[in-house]
Amino acid sequence: MKNSLMKTRLSASRLIVLACFVAGIAGPAQSQTQSSVADPQTLVQALNSVRARGCSGIPITTVALRVDPRLSAAAARTAVGTELAEALKSSAYRSPRATLVALSGYTGAPAIAQGAATHSCQTVMDPDFKEMGFYAAGSRVWIVLAAPFSPPLTTDKDLIEARVLTLVNEARSQARQCGNEALSAAQPVRLSAKLHAASAAHAEDMARYSYFSHAGRDGFHVSERANRTGYAWRAIGENIASGQMNADLAVQGWLKSPSHCANLMMPGYTEMGLAFAVNPESAGGVYWVQVFGLPK
Questions:
Q1: DSSP label at 65?
Q2: H or E stretch at 293
Q3: Nearest CA to 63 among 145, 118, 144?
Q4: Is the pTM value of this prediction over 0.85?
Q5: Once rounded to an integer, what is the mean pLDDT over residues 178-205?
Q6: 8 Å CB contact between 243 and 286
Q7: 270 burial type by CB count under 10 A (0-12 exposed, 13-18 middle, 19+ buried)
Q8: Non-local CB neighbours of 79 within 8 Å, separated by 6+ positions
Q9: Are strands 140-147 and 97-104 parallel, antiparallel or unpaired?
Q10: Which of helix, strand or coil describes residue 291?
């Protein structure tokens, strides 16, 4: 009974960590002169002006872009055919989300920025993108926009666990559709120190050894990890995620995934533990583990 419940509630599906979108845009055919972008600051100022005005009905973005030379190096690599993910890696720039906008035929920073907004308004206005770099060759320009790697602080772990608890109980307080499954509202859960310990052990192991799985390197699953902490359980379940830079994004990802959402909404659970671990050199960067339980 315990093993059956555990297996039905675990999901090995990984949440999205990196989204790379490449837009190749052809500008006005009549403008084939040399791109007159003097320096990255000229273009970033023009892009920030567009973000302050808004475009295509998308509200203005108050977050200003800033230049990172590593993104300019990545843009130069994409100009010779390197995939964006590899270009970022080669430029030693880590990002949970980055986008490449390629333009042709625009002259001058204001025209390039307006061209980017005309063809990729939602991308230009995205507030998650806080850093940029570019490379220009003739009338062609490659612009890389990125969300910087800004993981949560381990010193805030108690506040972050409390934040996740609030978000989880808000979600459980109302009926919810998890994929094709309609689920009723469920009772709130409370924090458990032992479930936190089980969460932390797995998050730290995944971050340290750069893997992503419900099974630990020792082959054990959440039930064994909970047993190790002395947690006597009648029901146990686990959600994991990687790459999200804050608690809200982690919970949003779980709620958007049918299996994770169903696990979060399971009415039998009364307790929860949440932990995260950060390792910039790992594949996921940030690893989140959420363990739910019903004690004996």
A1: P
A2: strand 286-295
A3: 145
A4: no
A5: 97
A6: yes
A7: middle
A8: 135, 137, 140, 142
A9: antiparallel
A10: strand
- The pair of structure tokens assigned to 213 is 């799985």
Q: SS in 3 state form for the chain?
A: CHHHHHHHHCCCCCCCCCCEEEEEEECCCCCCCCCCCCCHHHHHHHHHHHHHHCECCECCCCCCCEECHHHHHHHHHHHCCCCHHHHHHHCCCCCCEEEEEEEECCCCHHHHHHHHHHHHHHHHHCCCCCEEEEEEECCEEEEEEEECCCCCCHHHHHHHHHHHHHHHHHHHCCCEEECCEEECCCCCCEECHHHHHHHHHHHHHHHHHCCCCCCCCCCCCHHHHHHHCCCCEEEEEEEEEECCCCHHHHHHHHHHCHHHHHHHHCCCCCEEEEEEEECCCCCCCEEEEEEEEEEC
Rounded CA gap, 224 and 107, in Å?
A: 62
- pLDDT tens digits for 113-165? 999 999 999 999 999 999 999 999 988 999 999 999 999 999 999 999 999 99
> What 3-state class would DSSP assign to 155?
helix
> Quick one: which of 67, 87, 66, 65 has its CA closest to 77?
87
Helices then strands, counting H and E runs in the chain, come out as 10, 11
Phi first, then psi, for residue 68 (nearest 5°) are -125, 120
Q: Which residue has the higher pLDDT, 16 or 212?
A: 212
Closest C-alpha among 237, 294, 235 to residue 260 = 237
Length of the chain: 296
